[in-house]
Automatic annotation (TrEMBL):
Gene3D superfamilies associated with the record: Winged helix-like DNA-binding domain superfamily/Winged helix DNA-binding domain
Protein species of origin: Acidipila rosea
Lineage summary: Bacteria, Pseudomonadati, Acidobacteriota, Terriglobia, Terriglobales
PROSITE patterns hit by this protein: HTH_MARR_2 (PS50995)
InterPro entries in alphabetical order: HTH_MarR-typ (IPR000835), MarR/SlyA-like (IPR039422), WH-like_DNA-bd_sf (IPR036388), WH_DNA-bd_sf (IPR036390)
Protein name, as recorded: DNA-binding MarR family transcriptional regulator
Matches recorded under Pfam families: MarR_2
């Protein structure tokens, strides 16, 4: 049981460090962490480059009306564009503006290295027997470059 608790604590700590990094990066780019997550959902969740309010609510794990408010604030900030369906006015499609796309691209670049670091940490935690071999590979690479 102690090992399970250590693993859970380590996982939660690593996850929280990543979230803190992501929140800080979003603020440095002039958006809130929630707006960053919204733009990420719009651009990447469905594979279409856009998403409905319902799809975004699922992605963000928030209520529909909360996401509708977040989208409205993002529209006012010039991050996303909202378009109502001609066939069914209940459906609203959300897409990134050029400003939103530029900010999201910058955030993606900032996150790329951090995601790799976190992924490696999770893999090492899941497979501690491989941790030593990964460290040995890094040492061999350093020796090779020297």
């Amino acid at each position: 049981m102690d090992e399970v608790l250590r693993d859970l604590a380590s996982f939660r700590y690593t996850l929280r460090k990543f979230l803190r990094f992501s929140e800080k990066a979003a603020r440095q780019c002039g958006v809130t962490p929630q707006q960053h997550q919204l733009m990420l959902g719009v651009a990447g969740h469905t594979g279409r480059g856009s998403a409905t309010i319902s799809e975004l609510a699922e992605f963000l794990q928030e209520r529909h009306n909360s996401v509708a408010g977040l989208v409205e604030r993002a529209v006012q900030n010039g991050l996303v564009h909202r378009e109502q369906s001609d066939l069914d006015r209940r459906f609203v499609d959300v897409s990134l503006t050029s400003r939103g796309a530029k900010i999201l691209a910058k955030l993606a670049k900032l996150h790329e290295q951090e995601v790799g670091r976190v992924r490696a940490g999770f893999l090492e935690a899941a497979h501690p027997e491989k941790k030593q071999s990964a460290a040995a590979k890094r040492l061999a690479k350093r020796k090779q470059n020297a």
